Amino acid sequence: QVQLVESGGGLVQAGGSLRLSCAAPGRTFSNYEIGWFRQAPGKERESVAAISWIGGSTHYADSVKGRFTCSRDNAKNTLSLQMNSLKPEDTAVYYCAAGYNAYGGTPSSYEYWGQGTQVTVSS
Fold first, then answer.
1. Which of 11, 22, 36, 92 has the smallest C-beta neighbourhood within 10 Å, fewest atoms?
2. Burial class (CB in 10 A: 0-12, 13-18, 19+), 73
3. pLDDT tens digit string along 34-74?
Protein backbone atom coordinates (compact mmCIF):
# COMPACT_ATOMS: atom_id res chain seq x y z
CA GLN A 1 0.00 0.00 0.00
CA VAL A 2 1.32 3.42 -0.96
CA GLN A 3 -0.24 6.53 0.53
CA LEU A 4 0.18 9.68 -1.51
CA VAL A 5 -0.22 13.20 -0.20
CA GLU A 6 -0.53 16.20 -2.50
CA SER A 7 0.22 19.75 -1.45
CA GLY A 8 0.74 23.16 -3.00
CA GLY A 9 -2.73 23.94 -4.29
CA GLY A 10 -4.40 27.27 -3.74
CA LEU A 11 -5.94 30.34 -5.31
CA VAL A 12 -4.03 32.17 -8.01
CA GLN A 13 -4.84 34.76 -10.64
CA ALA A 14 -4.83 33.89 -14.31
CA GLY A 15 -1.29 33.94 -15.63
CA GLY A 16 0.15 32.95 -12.29
CA SER A 17 2.01 29.83 -11.23
CA LEU A 18 1.69 27.08 -8.68
CA ARG A 19 3.90 24.13 -7.84
CA LEU A 20 2.22 20.96 -6.64
CA SER A 21 4.12 18.32 -4.72
CA CYS A 22 3.33 14.69 -4.09
CA ALA A 23 4.83 12.74 -1.23
CA ALA A 24 4.67 9.15 -0.05
CA PRO A 25 5.49 9.29 3.64
CA GLY A 26 7.60 6.36 4.74
CA ARG A 27 7.61 4.78 1.29
CA THR A 28 9.60 5.08 -1.87
CA PHE A 29 7.83 5.38 -5.17
CA SER A 30 10.92 5.07 -7.32
CA ASN A 31 9.58 1.95 -9.03
CA TYR A 32 6.19 3.42 -9.85
CA GLU A 33 4.95 5.31 -12.83
CA ILE A 34 3.37 8.57 -11.72
CA GLY A 35 0.39 10.34 -13.17
CA TRP A 36 -1.14 13.72 -12.44
CA PHE A 37 -4.88 14.03 -12.96
CA ARG A 38 -7.49 16.68 -12.35
CA GLN A 39 -11.22 16.76 -11.93
CA ALA A 40 -13.41 19.82 -12.26
CA PRO A 41 -16.97 19.91 -10.89
CA GLY A 42 -19.33 17.97 -13.12
CA LYS A 43 -16.52 16.64 -15.29
CA GLU A 44 -14.69 13.35 -15.54
CA ARG A 45 -11.22 12.94 -14.14
CA GLU A 46 -8.69 13.68 -16.85
CA SER A 47 -5.02 13.06 -17.29
CA VAL A 48 -2.79 16.10 -17.03
CA ALA A 49 0.70 14.63 -17.10
CA ALA A 50 2.59 11.41 -16.61
CA ILE A 51 6.18 10.56 -15.87
CA SER A 52 7.86 7.20 -16.20
CA TRP A 53 9.42 5.51 -13.19
CA ILE A 54 12.93 6.38 -14.33
CA GLY A 55 11.81 9.88 -15.16
CA GLY A 56 13.16 9.87 -18.67
CA SER A 57 9.77 10.04 -20.32
CA THR A 58 6.98 12.54 -19.77
CA HIS A 59 3.60 12.98 -21.36
CA TYR A 60 1.26 15.96 -21.21
CA ALA A 61 -2.30 16.63 -22.17
CA ASP A 62 -2.56 19.03 -25.10
CA SER A 63 -4.37 21.53 -22.89
CA VAL A 64 -1.33 21.94 -20.59
CA LYS A 65 1.57 21.26 -22.94
CA GLY A 66 4.15 24.01 -22.74
CA ARG A 67 2.73 25.33 -19.47
CA PHE A 68 3.02 22.38 -17.04
CA THR A 69 6.14 20.42 -16.20
CA CYS A 70 6.25 17.29 -14.07
CA SER A 71 9.44 16.02 -12.55
CA ARG A 72 10.66 13.47 -10.08
CA ASP A 73 13.78 12.89 -8.06
CA ASN A 74 13.84 9.26 -7.02
CA ALA A 75 16.89 9.77 -4.84
CA LYS A 76 15.03 12.40 -2.81
CA ASN A 77 11.67 10.66 -3.20
CA THR A 78 10.02 13.82 -4.47
CA LEU A 79 7.51 14.52 -7.18
CA SER A 80 6.31 17.85 -8.47
CA LEU A 81 4.05 19.46 -11.03
CA GLN A 82 5.06 23.00 -11.98
CA MET A 83 2.11 24.88 -13.42
CA ASN A 84 2.74 28.17 -15.22
CA SER A 85 0.52 30.55 -17.17
CA LEU A 86 -2.50 29.21 -15.36
CA LYS A 87 -5.94 29.72 -16.86
CA PRO A 88 -9.40 29.71 -15.25
CA GLU A 89 -10.10 26.44 -17.05
CA ASP A 90 -7.29 24.83 -15.07
CA THR A 91 -9.45 25.12 -11.97
CA ALA A 92 -9.94 21.61 -10.54
CA VAL A 93 -8.92 19.22 -7.83
CA TYR A 94 -5.52 17.83 -8.76
CA TYR A 95 -4.42 14.30 -7.88
CA CYS A 96 -1.20 12.39 -8.10
CA ALA A 97 -1.38 8.66 -8.68
CA ALA A 98 1.10 5.78 -8.74
CA GLY A 99 1.09 2.42 -10.42
CA TYR A 100 3.17 -0.20 -12.14
CA ASN A 101 3.23 -0.15 -15.94
CA ALA A 102 0.72 2.70 -15.82
CA TYR A 103 2.66 5.35 -17.72
CA GLY A 104 0.30 7.43 -19.81
CA GLY A 105 -2.67 5.28 -18.91
CA THR A 106 -6.21 6.05 -17.87
CA PRO A 107 -7.09 6.60 -14.22
CA SER A 108 -7.93 2.91 -13.82
CA SER A 109 -4.31 2.06 -14.69
CA TYR A 110 -3.09 3.59 -11.45
CA GLU A 111 -3.36 1.74 -8.16
CA TYR A 112 -2.69 4.41 -5.57
CA TRP A 113 -4.12 7.89 -5.27
CA GLY A 114 -3.70 10.94 -3.10
CA GLN A 115 -6.61 12.84 -1.59
CA GLY A 116 -6.28 15.72 -4.04
CA THR A 117 -5.47 19.39 -3.71
CA GLN A 118 -7.68 22.23 -4.93
CA VAL A 119 -6.37 24.62 -7.56
CA THR A 120 -8.49 27.66 -8.28
CA VAL A 121 -7.55 30.16 -10.99
CA SER A 122 -9.42 33.45 -10.98
CA SER A 123 -9.90 35.53 -14.11
1. 11
2. exposed
3. 999 999 999 999 999 999 877 679 999 999 999 999 998 88
